[in-house]
Amino acid sequence: MKSILLAIGGLFIGAFVNMGIIQLGTYLIKAPGAYDLSTEEGLAQAMPLMGFEHFVFPFLAHALGTVVGAYFVTKMKVDKPLLKSMAIGFAFLAGGVMMVLSLPQTPLAFSLVDLLLAYLPMAYLGYRLAHIGTTQLGPVEK
Hints:
Radius of gyration: 17 Å
Number of strands: 0
Number of helices: 6
Order of helices and strands: HHHHHH
Number of domains: 1
């Protein structure tokens, strides 16, 4: 039960990091035109006007939220940490797929990079980063 609760905690912590980075991005990089990017309609209308800079923070939010969530569950010494870390990656990947499906105007290049690099590889990276400093060589799963 403790392991499941910690995995849920990892999801919440990762989501909190994700939302914080998204908020920072909207503060630093203004929306094109007068569109409100906090609504799905405004986001859909602004999408054709967005440049590369508008997609940096969403990618960072997705990637770093996943890394932090996976790192957390591994550091908390849950049972089967690799499995829990990858479960966090799959949960965030499901959210990414939902985002792509709900916003078909999203550029294909961003969607592919985001879905292929921001979730499962980052979950594994978070898992591995949690083991930095250990003397264990090779696979870290017990």
